[in-house]
Amino acid sequence: MPLVYNPALFQSISMEDYVGMVIGNITTVLKGMYKVDGRKFAMMGIGPLGCMPGMKLLTRNGSCSGAANKLAMLHNTALTSILAKLETRLYEFEYSYFDFYASGSEKIRHPSKYGFKEAENACCGSGPYRASPTCGGKRGVKEYSLCRHPEKFLFFDTYHPSERANKQFAQLMWNGSFECNQTSQPRSIVQIRACLNFSFSQNRK
Prior knowledge:
Keywords: Signal. The protein is of the alpha/beta class.
């Protein structure tokens, strides 16, 4: 979840127009890849931006930034919409979409369920929530805090999930949830979709 929400940007452009511009660029790239025989695309949405430690500094009470989360949801809705349209307009266009927002929100709401003890503060940084991007002496700041057990933290620094969290996201994208991996019973495509939080194109064979 490295994308950063900048409130100053939206003083001159609406969120909807900004998302439209971004999706337009993505569409251009996808069509360009299609022209050189790209047919199968794996796409991932944006996670809950407003709940990253760095974004909590924008709120008075340390809660998730509703504006940042709104931007992420607008983007994800627009992205899934354009993927569905491309599927109907481009011959043999296939895609899979990982719902990073839903998966990230689940870990934030229930960190202990996934083996984390801390989902509010970052492992490395300074200031409230260790949210200031000073980890490793960045920005000329030599004093910063580094936790002893990064694997217990959902976020490693200001904007990035920890290595353990990233491994879990990768496992979810490739193999489904832990519950799904434990079953030995055959699964229908509907069950697989539910486990993966994936949306599949109708053109998949």
